[in-house]
Fold Phage head-tail joining protein.
Amino acid sequence: MAHVFTRYLKLEVPVRTSDGAGGQAVTWEQRGGLWAEVRMRSGSLRHGDFGRTPRLQVRMRTHALPEGSSMRPEPGHRLRDGAHVYEVEAAHCDDAHVLTILASETPGAGGTA
């Protein structure tokens, strides 16, 4: 099956720095980008302290990247598509040299990197 990679996603990785008060602050560093196919897996509303929060889960497919590559998304990284920010939950390469990424949209994380 041919995949059509029509979405350009920016890969962001967390960078922890001292906050000057004995703790750490997390900022996001852009590592590059990749073209991918993005498809919805499921959507739901989660109940929280401040009302309901939408949760969108997606499956992304892109060209395979070798394990250990600085451009390969890993759990804890995130992918940005304009105002949409997706937290990577898992990444797996199949026999057809396609990297499948499972991710969830992170509401409220649309700030700049």
Observations:
- The domain at 7-105 is CATH 2.40.10.270 (Thrombin, subunit H).
- The mean pLDDT is 84.
- The chain is about 0% helix and 65% strand.
- The chain has one domain: 7-105.
